[in-house]
Write a structure and sequence with these properties.
Distance between the termini of chain B: 77 Å
Oligomer: heterodimer
Distance between the termini of chain A: 84 Å
Number of helices of chain B: 6
Helix content of chain B: 25-40%
Order of helices and strands of chain A: HHEHEEEEHEEEHHH
Strand order of the largest sheet of chain B: 5-2-6-7-8
Number of strands of chain B: 8
Strand content of chain A: 25-35%
Largest sheet of chain B: 5 strands, mixed
Radius of gyration of chain A: 24 Å
Strand content of chain B: 25-35%
Shape of chain B: elongated
Structural class of chain A: alpha/beta
Order of helices and strands of chain B: HEEHEEHEHEEEHH
Number of strands of chain A: 8
Helix content of chain A: 40-55%
Largest sheet of chain A: 5 strands, mixed
Radius of gyration of chain B: 21 Å
């Protein structure tokens, strides 16, 4: 069949033929798109936090005393406390919120270092200020997170600083690869933030004074 | 007719793009689901170290998923936090060794035992439509030597995990995580039953 664009009728005929053709030949494509949609999901939880062994070792050797956490919270819309949009696909926290995710992350590492005690006098809290992933790029994607960490010893503020971390990773033009890849990089973003915290000697000083 | 062929060609190209690629997954266990210190057997008062080479930590492995696709992951890196937890449950003091030749570090930390894990994995899925594996197996081979390098103990444990579409649609590595959790729980049991701890 030769396609001629000499008249509007020809265009209409082409579209009609194309639609008929698609109707019979598109199932594999439509099926593939359905699979992508199903796998992309409507609201996917972020992967669980993965403790960092160097973080745990740093906590163990820091001389920190028993430490507790108090509920972390978020402040401002940049915190994206409920969901982060990754190419239009919302990723929610594996915990109730992303502030709770951060609290769980630090609690896990304190627990592995065997210094977590929920009734301890020294308490860590944090306010999540920024929390976002940019995966629109076809080659690279990035994440940004920022939080204010506070250490209280009884009624005294022993530490109060804002820490920020960014990470980048390889992305892909296909959402079916780029979106799960971005989701899997969220725990690494949180790890990078906690590394900033643990690299601060004043933080460990606040835990052992 | 040509349009039919064109449509078929486009379909095959689309499917080719969607299949045959290695999808990244995480296979590490949820540490909160790993066994805690045994309530019946106290941790052995002993300083131990474990060694994973940098090459193993960086190693990425590709195994089959579903629909002709593959999955890619870092077994040593993903399982190390779980291994650290298990060893911490069994021994009172666990150290990460950067080198097996650093005798001064072994002496300084009082390390009596060195454990070397070797991890192998396999995965599969009967589904022609979805790529995440529905079946996953983790094998952990552990060799223990004393500070002088003499072999003390060795074991091989395994764990199998399964997950169906309704479960893994929100966690593509779920079958793998279940396999990792089972293998690490079996490793903890084997360590507690070993003559090193008894």
């Amino acid at each position: 069949m030769k396609i001629a664009w000499s008249s509007r009728q020809n265009f209409y005929n082409f579209m009609r033929d194309t639609l008929i053709t698609v109707r019979f030949t598109a199932p594999p494509v439509a099926f593939a798109l359905c699979v992508i949609t199903l796998l992309a999901g409507c609201s996917t939880p972020a992967p669980q936090y993965i403790i960092s062994i160097p973080h745990v070792q740093a906590l163990k050797t820091s001389g920190a005393k028993a430490t507790a956490t108090t509920p972390f919270r978020a402040e401002g819309s940049a915190a994206n406390n409920e969901t982060i949009s990754i190419r239009g696909n919302p990723m929610r926290s594996a915990k109730s919120t992303f502030a709770a995710y951060l609290e769980d992350a630090i609690t896990q590492e304190l627990t592995e270092a065997k210094i977590f005690n929920p009734s301890a006098n020294t308490k860590i809290s944090a306010v999540l200020l920024k929390n976002d992933i940019s995966a629109a790029g076809l080659v690279t994607a990035s994440g940004e997170i920022e939080a204010r960490f506070t250490v209280m010893r009884g009624d005294k503020v022993a530490f109060n600083k804002v820490k920020r971390a960014t990470t980048t990773w390889d992305s892909h033009f296909m959402g079916a690869i780029a979106i799960p890849n971005a989701q899997q990089n969220y725990p690494k973003l949180v790890q990078a933030l906690l590394k900033q915290l643990y690299d601060d000697n004043e933080f460990f000083a606040a835990l052992k004074d | 007719m040509k349009l039919v062929k064109l449509g078929t060609l486009v379909s095959f190209i689309a499917l080719a793009l969607l299949s045959g690629c290695a999808h990244p997954i995480l296979i590490g266990p949820d540490n909160t689901k790993l066994p805690t210190t045994s309530s019946t057997v106290a941790p052995k008062t002993m300083s131990v170290g474990y060694f994973i080479s940098d090459a193993d930590r960086a190693r990425r492995v590709i195994t089959p998923g579903g629909g002709g696709d593959k999955v890619e992951y870092a077994p040593y890196k993903d399982l190390e936090p779980g291994l650290f937890r298990v060893l911490g449950n069994v021994f009172t003091d666990v150290h990460v060794l950067k080198s097996l030749d650093d005798k001064a570090y072994l002496v300084a930390k009082g390390i009596k035992l060195i454990l070397r894990p070797s991890i192998s994995t396999n995965s599969s899925s009967p589904s022609p439509f979805t790529w995440p594996p529905t079946n996953f197996e983790v094998l952990i081979d552990v060799q223990a030597v004393d500070a002088a390098g003499a072999s003390v103990w060795k074991t091989t444990v395994s764990g199998k995990g399964q997950a169906e579409f309704s479960e893994f649609k929100s966690d593509f590595g779920l079958a793998a995580k279940r396999a990792s959790e089972a293998a690490l729980a079996n490793l903890q049991a084997a360590l507690f039953a070993s003559p090193m701890v008894k």
